[in-house]
Protein backbone atom coordinates (compact mmCIF):
# COMPACT_ATOMS: atom_id res chain seq x y z
CA UNK A 1 0.00 0.00 0.00
CA UNK A 2 1.33 3.41 -0.87
CA UNK A 3 1.40 6.33 1.47
CA UNK A 4 -0.74 9.01 -0.08
CA UNK A 5 0.03 12.70 -0.33
CA UNK A 6 -1.73 15.27 -2.48
CA UNK A 7 -0.19 16.91 -5.50
CA UNK A 8 2.41 14.55 -6.87
CA UNK A 9 3.55 13.31 -3.50
CA UNK A 10 4.08 16.68 -1.83
CA UNK A 11 2.74 16.77 1.68
CA UNK A 12 1.04 19.80 3.14
CA UNK A 13 3.06 19.35 6.32
CA UNK A 14 5.83 21.90 6.58
CA UNK A 15 4.84 23.71 3.41
CA UNK A 16 5.16 27.48 3.61
CA UNK A 17 2.04 29.45 4.42
CA UNK A 18 0.76 32.10 2.11
CA UNK A 19 -2.17 34.11 0.95
CA UNK A 20 -5.27 32.20 0.01
CA UNK A 21 -5.40 31.35 -3.65
CA UNK A 22 -4.66 28.60 -6.11
CA UNK A 23 -2.04 26.14 -4.89
CA UNK A 24 -1.33 28.04 -1.69
CA UNK A 25 -1.34 26.65 1.80
CA UNK A 26 -2.92 28.48 4.66
CA UNK A 27 -4.13 27.61 8.12
CA UNK A 28 -7.82 27.77 8.72
CA UNK A 29 -8.99 31.33 8.96
CA UNK A 30 -10.98 32.33 11.98
CA UNK A 31 -13.48 35.15 11.89
CA UNK A 32 -12.39 38.37 13.55
CA UNK A 33 -14.98 40.32 15.45
CA UNK A 34 -18.64 39.57 15.95
CA UNK A 35 -19.69 41.06 12.60
CA UNK A 36 -18.05 38.25 10.62
CA UNK A 37 -20.63 36.22 8.75
CA UNK A 38 -20.63 32.45 9.05
CA UNK A 39 -19.36 30.81 5.88
CA UNK A 40 -21.96 29.07 3.75
CA UNK A 41 -21.87 26.54 0.95
CA UNK A 42 -22.10 27.90 -2.58
CA UNK A 43 -23.71 25.02 -4.51
CA UNK A 44 -21.85 24.53 -7.79
CA UNK A 45 -19.38 27.16 -6.63
CA UNK A 46 -15.65 27.42 -7.05
CA UNK A 47 -12.99 26.17 -4.69
CA UNK A 48 -12.28 29.74 -3.60
CA UNK A 49 -15.97 30.36 -2.85
CA UNK A 50 -16.35 27.16 -0.81
CA UNK A 51 -12.99 27.11 0.95
CA UNK A 52 -14.16 29.28 3.87
CA UNK A 53 -16.82 26.71 4.82
CA UNK A 54 -14.45 23.77 4.19
CA UNK A 55 -11.87 25.42 6.47
CA UNK A 56 -14.38 26.38 9.15
CA UNK A 57 -15.82 22.87 9.39
CA UNK A 58 -12.48 21.04 9.16
CA UNK A 59 -10.72 23.31 11.65
CA UNK A 60 -13.57 22.83 14.14
CA UNK A 61 -13.32 19.03 13.86
CA UNK A 62 -9.55 19.11 14.39
CA UNK A 63 -9.86 21.59 17.28
CA UNK A 64 -12.32 19.24 19.00
CA UNK A 65 -10.18 16.17 18.26
CA UNK A 66 -6.58 16.76 17.12
CA UNK A 67 -6.39 13.10 16.02
CA UNK A 68 -9.67 13.18 14.07
CA UNK A 69 -10.03 10.34 11.61
CA UNK A 70 -11.00 10.66 7.97
CA UNK A 71 -14.55 9.54 8.57
CA UNK A 72 -15.14 12.30 11.14
CA UNK A 73 -13.83 14.90 8.73
CA UNK A 74 -15.87 13.60 5.78
CA UNK A 75 -19.03 13.30 7.89
CA UNK A 76 -18.69 16.88 9.14
CA UNK A 77 -18.23 18.20 5.60
CA UNK A 78 -21.27 16.22 4.40
CA UNK A 79 -23.31 17.62 7.30
CA UNK A 80 -22.26 21.12 6.15
CA UNK A 81 -23.64 20.40 2.67
CA UNK A 82 -20.66 19.15 0.65
CA UNK A 83 -21.46 16.25 -1.69
CA UNK A 84 -19.95 12.97 -0.47
CA UNK A 85 -19.61 11.82 -4.11
CA UNK A 86 -17.05 14.60 -4.74
CA UNK A 87 -14.86 13.68 -1.75
CA UNK A 88 -11.68 11.68 -1.29
CA UNK A 89 -9.87 10.70 1.91
CA UNK A 90 -6.68 8.83 2.73
CA UNK A 91 -6.39 5.94 5.17
CA UNK A 92 -6.19 6.59 8.90
CA UNK A 93 -3.55 3.90 9.31
CA UNK A 94 -0.31 2.96 7.57
CA UNK A 95 0.35 -0.28 5.71
CA UNK A 96 1.70 -1.79 8.96
CA UNK A 97 -1.25 -0.73 11.08
CA UNK A 98 0.08 2.39 12.78
CA UNK A 99 -1.88 5.61 13.00
CA UNK A 100 -1.12 7.76 9.97
CA UNK A 101 0.89 10.88 10.74
CA UNK A 102 -1.51 12.82 8.56
CA UNK A 103 -4.89 12.35 6.93
CA UNK A 104 -5.61 14.18 3.70
CA UNK A 105 -9.12 14.78 2.43
CA UNK A 106 -10.49 16.68 -0.52
CA UNK A 107 -13.61 18.02 -2.17
CA UNK A 108 -13.74 18.46 -5.94
CA UNK A 109 -15.48 21.72 -6.91
CA UNK A 110 -16.57 23.25 -10.20
CA UNK A 111 -13.06 24.51 -10.92
CA UNK A 112 -10.63 22.54 -8.79
CA UNK A 113 -10.03 20.87 -5.47
CA UNK A 114 -10.02 21.99 -1.86
CA UNK A 115 -7.52 19.76 -0.08
CA UNK A 116 -7.27 19.58 3.68
CA UNK A 117 -4.82 17.87 5.97
CA UNK A 118 -5.01 16.92 9.64
CA UNK A 119 -1.60 16.26 11.15
CA UNK A 120 0.34 16.73 14.36
CA UNK A 121 0.81 20.33 13.22
CA UNK A 122 -2.95 20.86 13.18
CA UNK A 123 -5.09 21.65 10.16
CA UNK A 124 -4.10 23.23 6.86
CA UNK A 125 -5.65 23.48 3.41
CA UNK A 126 -4.93 24.51 -0.12
CA UNK A 127 -6.67 24.89 -3.44
CA UNK A 128 -5.29 22.88 -6.36
CA UNK A 129 -6.34 21.93 -9.88
CA UNK A 130 -8.02 18.61 -10.56
CA UNK A 131 -5.44 16.00 -11.58
CA UNK A 132 -5.42 14.42 -15.02
CA UNK A 133 -7.09 11.39 -13.43
CA UNK A 134 -10.10 13.52 -12.51
CA UNK A 135 -9.19 13.18 -8.85
CA UNK A 136 -7.79 15.51 -6.23
CA UNK A 137 -5.44 13.22 -4.29
CA UNK A 138 -2.54 11.21 -5.68
CA UNK A 139 -2.36 7.48 -4.97
CA UNK A 140 -4.66 5.13 -3.16
CA UNK A 141 -7.55 6.53 -1.14
CA UNK A 142 -10.13 4.74 0.93
CA UNK A 143 -13.68 4.15 -0.19
CA UNK A 144 -16.22 6.53 1.29
CA UNK A 145 -18.90 3.88 1.52
CA UNK A 146 -20.58 4.65 4.81
Instruction: Estimate the global geometry from the Cα principal axes.
Output: globular
By helix and strand content, what is the structural category? alpha+beta
The radius of gyration over CA amounts to: 14 Å
Largest sheet: 5 strands, antiparallel
Span of the ends, CA to CA: 22 Å
Provide the spatial order of strands within the biggest beta sheet. 1-5-4-3-2
State the assembly state of the protein chains: single chain
The low-pLDDT segments are: 1-24
**Level of helix content?**
10-25%
- Average predicted confidence as pLDDT: 84
Number of helices, where a helix is a run of at least 4 consecutive DSSP H or I residues: 3
Provide the β-strand percentage band.
Answer: 15-25%
SSE order, as H and E?
Answer: HEHHEEEE
Query: Can you count the beta strands?
Result: 5
Short account of what is shown:
The chain is α+β, with helices and mostly antiparallel strands. The chain contains three helices and five strands; from the N terminus they run αβααββββ. A five-stranded antiparallel beta sheet has the order 1-5-4-3-2, with helices on one face.
Give the helices and strands, then pairings.
Layout: H1 6-9, E1 25-27, H2 47-64, H3 70-79, E2 87-89, E3 102-108, E4 113-119, E5 122-128
Antiparallel strand pairs: 1-5, 2-3, 3-4, 4-5
